[in-house]
Amino acid sequence: MKTSTKALILLLAISGSALANDAGILRCRGIAEASARLACYDALAVPATEVRAVPGKPAQQTDPRAAQTAPSAPSSAPAAPGQQKTDQFGLENRTSPVVADAIESYIPGRFEGWGAKSLIKLANGQVWQVTDDTSRYLTLNDPKVKIRRGALGAFYLEFEKVNYSPRVKRVQ
Prior knowledge:
10 strands; two-stranded antiparallel ribbon; 3 helices; 6-stranded antiparallel beta sheet; alpha+beta
């Protein structure tokens, strides 16, 4: 096919959609009530791409919405109420909640160690269960403990002045 034939076919395709869109605009224009007329205009289909033919050059497709969604230069002005800055668009729910890295408490009374699946009740009311297969015999009175967050969602129970830290999970 020659370039001029391709350009003619593209122009015919564009004019057909333009005529269909004109009929919709004329239909909406005839509605007397303002809110119904606006709803009619909003319901009109907008072509996804627009083809621009320049004589002597191949046709180029451009997206009419590109001007609306193209990133603009960063502005230091605050966004108006109800609007957000374009550099934060889509990140609304990605803010990480503030979480503690560790908690400190103590085990009330005499503590004689742990085994696999042992339950350990802290003074703050939390109950933690040992999830690894370690076991230790310790004789401690009211030992201070720290539960710290580990990698990949793990928690470790650390005893003051003791080098053993079983992996635990909170059960209550």
